[in-house]
Amino acid sequence: MSKRDAIIHAATILFSTKGFENTRMSEISHMTGAAEGTIFYHFKNKEDLFLAILEQFRQDVMNEFDLYLREMEFEDGMEMLEGVLSFYLSLAEKMEDRFLLLHRHDAYELARVNEACKEHLESIYNGLVNIFENALVKGKADGSMVSVPPKKTALIIFSMVDGLVRFNTYELYDAGSLYTELITACRKMVRNQDNSGIGDKNA
Amino acid sequence: MSKRDAIIHAATILFSTKGFENTRMSEISHMTGAAEGTIFYHFKNKEDLFLAILEQFRQDVMNEFDLYLREMEFEDGMEMLEGVLSFYLSLAEKMEDRFLLLHRHDAYELARVNEACKEHLESIYNGLVNIFENALVKGKADGSMVSVPPKKTALIIFSMVDGLVRFNTYELYDAGSLYTELITACRKMVRNQDNSGIGDKNA
DNA sequence: ACCCCAACTGAGCGCTCAGTCGGTTTTCAC
DNA sequence: GTGAAAACCGACTGAGCGCTCAGTTGGGGT
Questions:
Q1: Pseudo-torsion of CA A68, A70, A71, A75, nearest 10°?
Q2: Share of chain A above pLDDT 90, in %
Q3: What would the pLDDT profile of B152-198 be if each residue is shown by its tens digit?
Q4: pTM
Q5: Which of A98, B37, B46, B81 has the most CB atoms in a 10 Å sphere around its CB?
Q6: Are B150 and B157 in contact (CB under 8 A)?
Q7: Is the CB of A185 less than 8 angstroms away from the CB of B156?
Q8: How many helices (H) and strands (E) does chain A have?
Q9: What pLDDT, in 10s, does the model give residues A20-73?
Q10: Which residues of B touch A152 (CB under 8 A)?
């Protein structure tokens, strides 16, 4: 592992757990065994290091999803949605620290003044929401779901699952025990079962 | 308005928009006209000031909900859920800065080392989730909803609405345009009508 | 053997900022 | 009016931190 990679790795953990501001360059240095000067040799400043981490995260997440979607074959949109949901949750567990990074405010702060950062963030979010949206479009086409506005519904589903992951990292509730309820809730939201008009056929 | 109140007010805005770490005591001083020494006369340190803000927020939110629930009379649980949802969203707009504070990571960070902070946070979240839960229990009792696990469903609904508010503050999507979809989604999740055997409550 | 240069080093500079302290003003009970 | 306490003030301190820079190292090319 090169010094540069080691620095990115250590900084990811520290930025995630302690936050950008609360992480000292000296800590990263100490954790990697690299001198402080070395960090500034590879990254022009602390902010630049942060962006490198974000970019790496984006690539890794998208790669994971690409691989997953390529190797899976879904019967219909409903099945795809469920698959994508649970894969998202497993990813959030597997890459826990970096998801935490996304759930901090540091990146959004930086995005206000740094165009590159804003692009990274939007690209990450759009990528994720698109995956859900694709499932919804597929489900609509094959009749496994009712006709819902795909983009908006995707956003709602995303905010739901993202919120749960957040609960977990905040350690306020055990979100893990909510996974089955989450899937059930999503299914109810979009399933095609009673053919009523959208929501107004009350028994 | 006393100096102390002015300090809390200014600090709330600054902590919300700039974050705890990024807010200088000198800024709070400048914004209020109070000298820096005065801030430390009223609050023993920066952290203590932060906790005072949190506590104030908790009280205000709970007061608002108490008032709302007292003056409203709901036909059934379903109506209550919708009312509570939209009131939550309007509150988030009205108290935008303080909700932003809740969506930052500062408080959760502090909660790890500060017991009082953790208690404030849990009390805020439990208070909010309970409100949704009460609506679900009511709906279950009066038959306007299917039988769902109230606590878990309340958590899911809460994470959904909270996620939307977050989108808004992050300015990534216009969550406002999603409000009607949100209500629809919730209704589908819990409504009592002919379901294909999942939850079978009678009309 | 020699050079070159990318990689790396770490002491230290310049600055920032939470918190202090000695003092002044305001308030108010008697 | 008087005294004392509460409220307020702001220059100052000192620890901490991002970043610099002059110098070292080591491996590959000739």
A1: 100
A2: 61
A3: 999 999 988 988 888 887 777 777 788 888 998 999 888 875 443 33
A4: 0.85
A5: B81
A6: no
A7: yes
A8: 10, 0
A9: 999 999 999 999 999 999 999 999 999 999 999 999 999 999 999 999 999 999
A10: 177-178, 181
Contact A181, B152 (CB under 8 A): yes
Question: How far is the C-alpha of A40 from the C-alpha of A37, rounded, in Å?
Answer: 5
Q: What is the pLDDT of residues A88-121, one digit of tens each?
A: 999 999 999 899 998 888 898 888 888 889 999 9
- Distance from C-alpha of A54 to C-alpha of A47, rounded to nearest angstrom: 11
Token pair 């540069």 in the structure block, residue: A4
Q: Taking Cα atoms as reference points, which of A73, A74, A28, A77 lies closest to residue A49?
A: A28
User: How far is CA B189 from its chain centroid?
Assistant: 22
Q: Are A65 and A58 in contact (CB under 8 A)?
A: no
Q: Inspect the interface and report whether the beta carbons of B177 and A122 lie closer than 8 Å.
A: no
Q: What type of residue is A181?
A: E
Distance (Å, whole) CA B38 – CA A131? 53
Residue for token pair 């890459």: A95
Contacts of B49 (CB under 8 A, 6+ apart): B7, B8, B11, B39, B43
Q: Which amino acid is at B4?
A: R
What pLDDT is attached to residue A176? 75
How many other C-beta atoms can be found within 10 angstroms of the C-beta atom of residue B74? 18
Across the strands, what pairs with B145?
B191
Q: Helix or strand or coil: residue A193? A: coil
Nearest-nucleotide field for B26 (CA, C1'): C17
Per the CB < 8 A criterion, the answer to whether B86 and B72 are in contact is no
Tokens of A103: 């759930």
Q: Is the CB of A4 under 7 A from strand C?
A: yes
Specify whether the CB–CB gap between B100 and B16 falls below 8 A.
yes
